Every structure is written in C-alpha cells, then in structure tokens.
Amino acid sequence: MKYKEKILAMLDQDARLTAAQMARMLDAPEEEVASEIAALEREKVILGYKAMINWDKADQEMVTAQIEVRITPQKDMGFDEIAHRICSYPQVQSAYLMSGGFDLTIVLMGKTLREISQFVSENLAPMESVISTSTHFILKKYKDMGVAYDPEENDTREVMMSW
C-alpha cells in the first residue's frame, strides 16, 4: 500500500474527505486511493467513520462521564470477558485497559447525571468481577479526538495538511 500512512492521517484529520479529494492531495490516481481505502476497511485498520458532535450547541444535552473500574481478572480470560460485557451496553462509548491504580476506564454518555449514576449502580457495580468504581463527570470539553471545542473558533477543521 503505497499511500497507506498518508490516507490514514488524512482520514484521521477529516473522515469526510472523498477518495477523489485525497487523490488530488496526494497527486495519485483516484482508483488507487479508493482501492487502498477499501483494503484498509477489509483489514479492519479503518473500523468506522463517526461525526464529532458538540452537544453543548445542539438542542439535545448530553452528559459524559469517565469511570475508573477495578476488577478481578477471570481465570483463562483475564480482563477481556468483563470488558466485552461492559462494552455491550449502548451507553458505553469507549473502554480501555489501563495500567496503574485501576484496570479499566469506561467512557459513558447519557442524558442526565442521574442516568449515568443509575447505569453505574445498576449495571456496572453489581457485576461479579467488579471490585470498585469511581465516576468522574466531564464538566467541559476543550479538545476531543484532536478537535478543539473553542467557541471563539469558527471552524475546528481548518487545520491544513501538507504532503
């Protein structure tokens, strides 16, 4: 894959770029760029495309929480089985195995603080492998996934790439 790293960097910066736009930026044939993107999707290097939404500016308010979870690893499964069970809930946006004082970091989204608290107390904390949880509510986002949430900034996508 001749353009793999550059295509991935471009999509990471702006997933709305078309194969034609990337081909022009790379001075490459569009068919070749489209073929490389398709191969990256088949190989599960590109897992999906997602919009970044500033919920503070939308009509629908959302609450984001980061939850530190300490768990007892299960025999022959380690942390994977419990992590997969936790990930099966639609409220769970992200889950990471961590080093340090806790085992997993879970990022949740909900409509209210109460909804998140209820999820933790009714779904997460009662799991047999969960030893403890610590919930941190996100009060304000300044930057997420490389995108600035600065209200003074008109377009957070104006970062230009040069190849």
Question: Can you describe what's shown?
Answer:
This protein is of the alpha+beta class and 163 residues long. The chain is built from 5 helices and 6 strands; from the N terminus they run αααβαββαβββ. The chain has helices at 4-13, 19-26, 30-42, 80-87, 113-124, and strands at 63-71, 92-97, 104-110, 130-137, 143-144, 147-148. The protein has a 4-stranded antiparallel sheet. Strands 5-6 form a two-stranded antiparallel ribbon. A hairpin with a 6-residue loop joins β2 (92-97) and β3 (104-110). α2 (19-26) crosses α3. The longest helix has 13 residues, at 30-42. The chain is globular. Mean pLDDT is 88; it is low at 154-163.
Structural class: alpha+beta
Strands, total number: 6
Strand content: 15-25%
Q: Multimeric state of these chains?
A: single chain
Poorly predicted tracts of residues: 154-163
Q: Major beta sheet, specifics?
A: 4 strands, antiparallel
Give the averaged pLDDT, no decimals: 88
Shape: globular
Order the strands across the largest sheet as they lie in space: 2-3-1-4
Keywords:
163 residues, alpha+beta, four-stranded antiparallel sheet, two-stranded antiparallel ribbon, globular, disordered C terminus
Could you give a short description of this structure?
By secondary structure, the chain is an alpha+beta fold. It is 31% helix and 21% strand. Strand 2 and strand 3 (104-110) form a beta hairpin.
